[in-house]
Amino acid sequence: MLADEVLVAGQWRQGRGAPIKTIDPATGQVIATVHAASLDDVEEAVTAAAHAAHDPAWRELPAHLRARLLHRIADFVERDADRLSALQTADTGKCRTETRALVLSAAGTFRYTAAALETAEDAITPSRGPYVTMSVHEPIGVVGAITPWNSPIASDAQKLAPALAAGNAVVLKPAEWTPLVALALGRLVHQALTEAALPTALLSVLPGRGSVIGDAIVRHPAVGKITFTGGTNTGRTLAHAAADKLIPVSLELGGKSPTIVFDDADLEQALAGVMYGVFSSSGQSCIAGSRLFVARSRYEEFVGELVARTEKLRVGPGTDPDTQVAPLVHHKHRDSVAAYVDLAREEGATVRCGGAAPEGDSYRDGAYYLPTVLDGLPNSARVCQEEIFGPVLVALPFDDEDDLVAQANDSVYGLACGLWTRDHAKAWRVARRIDAGTVWINTYKQFSISTPFGGLKDSGIGTEKGRDLIRGYQRQKSLYWGTGTAPLPWAAN
Ligand code: NAD
Asked: Which of 34, 174, 203, 411 is buried most, with the most CB atoms less than 10 Å from its CB?
């Protein structure tokens, strides 16, 4: 299959950049060659986006009609859910159940954003003189949206929906390894814009190298906001570029999230939560609960049972409905995960289970790695501090609440945390003491579009989701409207 068309300035055509081969990580087979965007394509896309953002047909479109556009996109995504889910499974390797949920969550994001848009209000503020004061929100213009490979359609929708709702144009750059779903979503948005007789240059989808195409989008003078999901180092580079241009940037970055099992926890619930928290999506999730802290008194009992159950997880292709742990996104990424486990061995870890690719013909060509539990390391070890982004859990014991909080917070990251206890007062206390943007109590990795999501420390700046999700894509303006009849006293006779 040759996917030779990218979306540049409202036109589907072959990108002028170098071809990118995208593979199915379950088989290692090339599923498409995408002709990536070139620097000229970026220039053309951003220039056309700036015009489209100022086109009165878009700029003056009332909120309820912009909301209708978002609902139409959601209709198309729901209609094509099976196709999009199959495409995402082929491109990322993820299980079909997960990719289907991601597709439907993307549709839900467009619908929720439409509702937020229709109910968003500007304010008349208390005036201090003969004038009416108003605080209003306006579009920024062109938004550069850059997304990672792990959950393409969901992260694309989380940026696209609020950016369009706010009245902007968007230039979207998906990750090199997984460009297909963003392009497929682009087709649906393009169709909805065409049907509504709106400027199709409101969205460009430009696959390509991050350091070339992503960088050109970020640095383009007409791009007025950067919204990014990806690794912390990349996020830091983008924040520097945004600082140079004095434009807002929102960053959803990496994590090394602690999951905590107290001695009074419901162990069945905790086992299921810890395993799902780290091994679903094969650990390729920013919020993966990849550092496990267990009360010392229950440590051996809990970790022993966890290892026994982890060994029974079903590893296989994402297309098999029985699969729990699918291949990693790419063979190169599998090798980087394996290198981390080798490093753990060098650091003195005990590999309690996993620690290798699965054996057998059916696994030979895929980017598989067994779910792995490590222990015997201090929290200062590199594998306890660095994001591995694979099915690798590091287990550590803790002595008391202060020891736990100190260890859990001893990380540059602050994305998420899970804790299991039957003691409500302790749950409340610890949840408030942990540095994390999201804390799950007696559950893990549950999401609601109506609840803001974002990271602390090196895990990011800003939030997505929640009823104010559109505000990050707008500029606030104050208006003073004089109501008096007398001139201002300064120049009075
Ligand atoms: P990455 O940072 O390597 O790439 C992310 C995107 O940035 C890609 O599209 C890439 O091409 C682009 N990019 C790379 N260098 C760039 C540059 N110099 N200028 C502009 N764009 C550039 O991340 P990844 O490996 O694709 O994704 C995995 C990371 O994403 C993990 O760290 C994970 O934790 C993080 N992530 C965070 C969240 C969250 O919500 N906090 C969600 C998903 C993934």
From this structure: 174
Choose, from 286, 387, 445, 465, the residue flagged as catalytic. Answer: 286
158 is a domain residue = yes
Structure confidence by residue, pLDDT tens digits, 446-476: 999 999 999 999 999 999 999 999 999 999 9
What are the C-alpha distances in Å from 294 to residues 54, 282, 303, 436? 56, 22, 8, 18
Q: What is the DSSP letter of 222?
A: T
CATH number at residue 387: 3.40.309.10
CA 171/CA 166 separation, integer angstroms = 15
Measured CA to CA, the distance from residue 79 to residue 100 in angstroms comes to: 12
Residue nearest to atom 14 of ligand 1 (CA): 210
How far away, in angstroms, is 179 Cα from ligand 1 center? Answer: 13
Domain boundaries, position 351:
258-441
Query: CB count, 10 Å around CB of 121?
Result: 6
Note the pLDDT tens digit of each residue in 89-129.
999 999 999 999 999 999 999 999 999 999 999 999 999 99
Q: How far is the CA of 101 from the centre of ligand 1 (A)?
A: 21
Which residue has the CA at smallest separation from atom 11 of ligand 1?
210
Say if strands 131-139 and 123-125 run parallel, antiparallel, or are unpaired: antiparallel
CA nearest ligand 1 atom 22, residue:
210
Domains contained in the chain, number:
2
Catalytic residue from among 252, 417, 445, 465: 252
Q: Is the CB of 252 under 6 A from ligand 1?
A: yes
Note whether 64 and 201 are same-domain residues.
yes
**Rounded CA separation 329/333 (Å):** 7
Annotation says 401 is catalytic: no
Report the amino acid identity of residue 48: A
Same domain, 39 and 135: yes
